[in-house]
User: What shape does this take?
Amino acid sequence: MISEATAQARLERAEAKVQILEAMIEDKTRDLFLANRQLSAAASALRAVHEAMPAALFVTDESLRVVETNEFAASLLGFSRESLLAGSLTRWWPEADIALGDSRSVHSLECEWEGTGNIAIPVLVSARLAGDEPRRWICVAVDQRERRRLEAELRQAQKLEAVGQLAAGVAHEINTPLQFVGDNVQFLGSVVDSLLTLVDAHREVVEDRGAAIPAAARGALTTLMEEADLDYIRRRGPRAVDRARQGVARVAEIVAALRRFSHPGQAPVCAELNELVETTLVIAKNEYKYVADITLNLGDLPTLMLHEGEVQQALLNLIVNAAHAVTERHGDHGTGTIRIGTTRDSTAVTIRVSDNGCGIPPELQERVFEPFFTTKPVGEGTGQGLAQVHAMARRHDAQIKLESEPGQGTSVIISFPLTAQEQAA
Assistant: This one.
């Protein structure tokens, strides 16, 4: 038999081992608790990063079924988050299985996804197959619409710069011979006046002293005067010279407008909005002169700090659009009207460009300022005209508003805020 002392010793050793095990279990439990808390915090931080990403995130299984996504993805595609989680990546990226294929990763792949309403959304996709079993595709898509819009604006600006340089060169080349033509027309006008005065004086002498002039000379002189048709020259000569002067003045006006339009500068400058309107009308005259009358109501305005080139381009786009709208409704009959008015109040200067053209359907009015959106037939519109107007307004912190009624016409109203100094002017 085991003595009582031996049994007591064994019990004490067992209790000591139990205490050691309890301490170890307590330490492990505390470590597991801390690790679990850290893991939970890391998971929360990772979810926060996912939600804060300015890009669409998708985590899918190897069959491309979505198991995780973020709110940006839902906003980008126009679907609810639950709808995305219930579907496959190929639902909005039909070529996903081909693009990913047998590779383990793709980087900066440009493609188009299909959003709600079958809207094509340009994105830049990077994806990687990560983890052990079960493996997951981590897919990130960056919205490229803003980049494409900026690229389109840059291309348009480069085109306008090239056209501006060409226009400036043409204007310079025209200006010098135009001065010669103008000076010579002025000279011819004075010559015609002098010759007519001389002819009148000569006729009076002939009439007063006709008897003293030999009959043969008098007859020849009379014949020459009849053949010259002096009465016709007297009526039409000065008028022809005046019209030539007006034509030269008109060409000079166009050349001056081209030079102002092609040298707008990059920085904002003190500018007269009414003067920009008048200059742009000169440039755009060929667009509207056969289809619409221009009605101007230009108020008394202070000078504004403006990017002249952008404002002129926006005005040009509005006038051209108005002319096209008038043509679409009235045809080439010259029965349309384009009204341009400027006003000011205590806080802003406002310009309104209106027409009595075809108008814009209500369902399209919210989209007219979107880049690449156009109501014109394929090949006739780029969808950049009103987008440039909107970009100009945004750069000047201006408010832009569209008012349109189908069959009645359209108005675009832009209000430029006044600085404290401009308000005092």
Summary: The two ends are 117 Å apart (CA to CA). The first strand starts at residue 56 and ends at 60. The chain has twelve helices and twelve strands. The chain has four domains: 1-42, 53-143, 144-263, 268-425.
